Amino acid sequence: MKNYHQLAKSREKILQKIRAFFNANDFIEVETPIMVKIPGSEPHLTPFETGLIVKEQSTSLYLNTSPELQMKKLLAKGLEKIFNITKVFRNGEIYSKTHNPEFTMLEWYRKNSDYFEIMQDTENLIKSLAGDKIIYQGKTVNLADKWDRKTTNQLFQEYLAIDLLENRDYQTFQKTAQKHSYDINGCTDWDDIFFKLFLNHIEPHLGSEKPIFVYDYPSSQAALARKKTDEPFFAERFELYIANMELCNAFSELIDAKEQRERLIEDQETRKKLNKTVFEIDEEFLESLESI
What are the backbone dihedrals phi and psi of residue 160, each rounded to the nearest 5 degrees, phi first? Predict the structure, then answer.
């Protein structure tokens, strides 16, 4: 039988250490709404819908899938270094050891910083929590040495002999995958192929012996991230893998309101094609970008 008292105490200590880390680095803890009128527009997320009833008038509200938009609005109000430990909700998730429709998320922001600074924050935070190593499912992962960093394109070339820049459109990517005899059944667009190949052929190798930051994801998978100036096909986004498990997602913030509006409109079109609810654009969020 599981020792739930021990698990609860361990969780409490981890939360205390997280708060101590951010306090020591001059971050301010904030709280953001759980129910919002306009959730994020990420095409592959489905929020839980609820309703507010006032004098027999009902207004649709949604449980937050991420505190991101609300935290950026706080940055626009003058806060510069903030963190948030909050509950988030994502409908349509498959119950498993690594996925749950309701979970606790840690999110933080440094004003005027980029994704490499956030990578360093992440590495420092986890080392402060776990020390020099972790043991997961009987395997030891070394945290002490410098962590690996590789782009998605480097990984596709290393594990699949595919250069993403030479396969920028769906038809070319499809033909290349078929040429290499990779299974892409059920894939209907470029991102579907990317995800199927990445999850089946790359992810099982990531972070086995020491952590790895995977960065520079295709811009189509980073709606709120800044595109790379030298190659806008990619965006300044990263994920961290430890013991073959993705632990976080982060990016350099896109603060150009005009470009952000265009990207949100693209997301609306994608959601429409996927037969998902299409949400209106959060104008308050776009206005806040002007002040960040």
Answer: -125, 0
| 7: Cα separation from own chain's centroid | 26
Beta-carbon count within 10 A of 173 CB: 23
Band of pLDDT at residue 80, cut at 50, 70 and 90 = very high
Residue 245's DSSP bridge partners are 242
Long-range contacts of 72-75 (CB under 8 A, 24+ apart): 72/109, 72/253, 72/285, 72/288, 72/289, 72/292, 73/284, 73/285, 73/288, 74/30, 74/32, 75/109, 75/111, 75/288, 75/291, 75/292
- What's the order of all strands across the beta sheet hosting 35-36? 35-36, 57-63, 49-54
Return phi, psi of residue 46, to 5°. -120, 115
pLDDT tens-digit profile of 170-226?
A: 999 999 999 999 999 999 999 999 999 999 999 999 999 999 999 999 999 887 889
- Amino acid 142 reads N
Burial 191-215 (b: 16+ CB within 10 A, else e): bebbebbbeebbbeebbeebbbbbb
Provide CB contacts within 8 A for 208, sequence distance 6+. 139, 141, 243, 244
Q: How many CB atoms lie within 10 A of CB 142?
A: 12
Rounded distance between C-alpha atoms, residue 153 and residue 234, angstroms = 9
**Closest to 126 (Cα-Cα) out of 211, 189, 56:** 211
